[in-house]
Design brief:
The chain has 198 residues and is α+β, with helices and mostly antiparallel strands. It contains three helices and eight strands. The strands form two sheets. Strands 1-8-3-6 form a four-stranded antiparallel β-sheet, with no helix packed on it. The structure holds calcium ion (3 copies).
């Protein structure tokens, strides 16, 4: 017959062992999603060219797209996130400004794309922690305000958008280290019981 006091101590040790096991299962994982032509106004890579409609878009043809974030096991927190956008004919040198927003158009300005005349280049933005809550919710919208600076009249084509999220998750299946720690905990309980401390 275990006394109430012993039961309490036993539960305390059990909770301690469980806490050690859980913390040992934290994994830092990277999630990546690449959006291409099948998701919207991204260039297909064939058929109509980089400077043809509907791919090549101008200042009054701003648009938005959505990235999804799904993690398995479920993320418990985001460490960092980036978006890398591959674009054609950004014309940075001649004053074209194609601004990227997180949270859709009207959201948080991430900055302008950077790129050459009549060629492709990828611009990467570190997403601010203010976007992490939306990502944890499963998705984040993005928008491009095309040719928003001094009038240039030149368009831009997007080839792809890549979301990369580094996050922490806790595994349901114990890692080897956790099994070892759990075993030590069970051993500790046995030892305490033999010492009549529990
Ligand atoms: Ca615009
Ligand atoms: Ca150009
Ligand atoms: Ca251009």
């Amino acid at each position: 017959m275990i006394s109430m006091e012993k039961m309490k101590r036993l539960l305390t040790v059990a909770a301690f062992v469980l806490a050690i096991s859980s913390s040992a299962n934290a994994d830092v994982t990277t999630y990546m999603e690449v959006l291409t032509y099948d998701t919207g106004y991204f260039w297909e890579g064939s058929g109509a060219g980089e400077k043809d409609t509907p791919n090549f878009r101008f200042r009054d043809q701003d648009w938005e797209w959505t990235h999804t974030f799904s993690s398995s096991p479920a993320a418990t927190g985001i460490v960092s996130a980036t978006i890398a956008i591959n674009a054609y004919d950004v014309d940075t040198a001649t004053g074209e400004v194609d601004n990227i927003y997180a949270g859709g158009l009207g959201g948080t300005l991430q900055g302008p794309l950077v790129g050459p005349n009549s060629d492709w280049q990828t611009t990467t933005f570190d997403l601010p922690s203010s976007t992490f809550a939306a990502l944890m919710g499963g998705s984040l919208d993005f928008g491009i305000d095309i040719d928003t600076g001094t009038v240039n009249g030149s368009g831009v084509t997007l080839g792809s958008s890549t979301l990369t999220v580094t996050y922490v998750a806790y595994n349901a299946t114990p890692a080897p280290g956790a099994v070892l720690l759990g075993g030590l905990g069970v051993g500790l309980v046995g030892w305490l019981r033999r010492r009549k401390l529990l």
